[in-house]
Structures are given as C-alpha cells and as structure tokens.
Amino acid sequence: MTNAISPELYWTVLTAGLASVLWIPYILQRILELGPIATFSDPRHEVATKAPWAQRAKNAHTNMIENLVVFAVLALTIQIVGGGTSTTALAALLFFASRAAHYVVYTLGLPWVRTPMFLIGFFCQLTLLFAILAHG
C-alpha cells in the first residue's frame, strides 16, 4: 500500500527544495568579493556584501524561510486532517510560484512587483488556514 503525496505537500516540498539552494548566489558573490577564506571565516555574514543585489538575495532567502515555516505547518495540517481540496491544491501551487517570483523580483530590486508576490503567498497561507478551520 502506498500513499500518494498530496498536492499541498508536493508544492511544499518543492518550495523547501528551492529554499535550500537560494543561498548560493549570495555566497558566490561573497566569495568573489572577500575570497573563500574570509567568506567562510565570517559564517554569520557580519561583513556586508558590496553588491546591493546580493544583500537583497540574502533578505529574500530569509523571507522565504520565514514564510515556508508557516506554510509547511499549514500544508502538513491539511494532510493530517484530510482537508485538501482543489482550492488548497491551487493555493499550494501558487504559493510555490509566488515565492519563486518573490525571490527573483526582490533580488532584482523591483518593490512594486515584490509586494504583490508576497501578498499572493500570504493569501495562499490564509487559504490553507481557512480550509483547516472550516474542516473543523
């Protein structure tokens, strides 16, 4: 007997996979600026990068992690209570897409696009929350 992964968990796993590699551009920029020894001697990144895009990438990654924690709890709860619907599945897909877009536009420095991408992800979280509460 096998259990198929729900769409909510599938997109959550893909979001986690994406989040797991979003640190790479920032670290590569730090290596270019500081060299490998200085970069890895400063694990808390207290020496700021000179490239504004890299600092934005770091901030976008942090924001992704913060939002992924909330979404993952909601997606797991949907799975546990059996409350998944076509709406929650779509919300999970949109969460992944909006968070990927958020990272790109944040890194590029496009605040007028960044905020809507953030809000789409937030409304996806609310969609799962309300589905859980309605499920009872």
Contiguous low-pLDDT stretches (5 residues minimum) are none
- End-to-end CA span: 28 Å
Number of helices: 6
**Secondary structural class:** mainly alpha
Shape: elongated
* Largest sheet, strands/sense/barrel: none
- What is the N-to-C succession of helices and strands? HHHHHH
Tell me how many strands there are: 0
Overall pLDDT, averaged?
A: 93
Q: How much strand?
A: under 5%
- Helicity, as a percent range: over 70%
Q: Which radius of gyration do the C-alpha atoms yield?
A: 17 Å
Question: Can you describe what's shown?
Answer:
- The chain is elongated, with a radius of gyration of 17 Å.
- The chain is mainly alpha-helical and 136 residues long.
- The longest helix is centred in the middle third of the chain and has 30 residues.
- It contains 6 helices and no strands.
- Helix 1 packs parallel to helix 5, helix 4 packs antiparallel against helix 5 and helix 4 packs parallel to helix 6.
- The model has no long low-confidence stretch (mean pLDDT 93).
- The two termini are 28 Å apart.
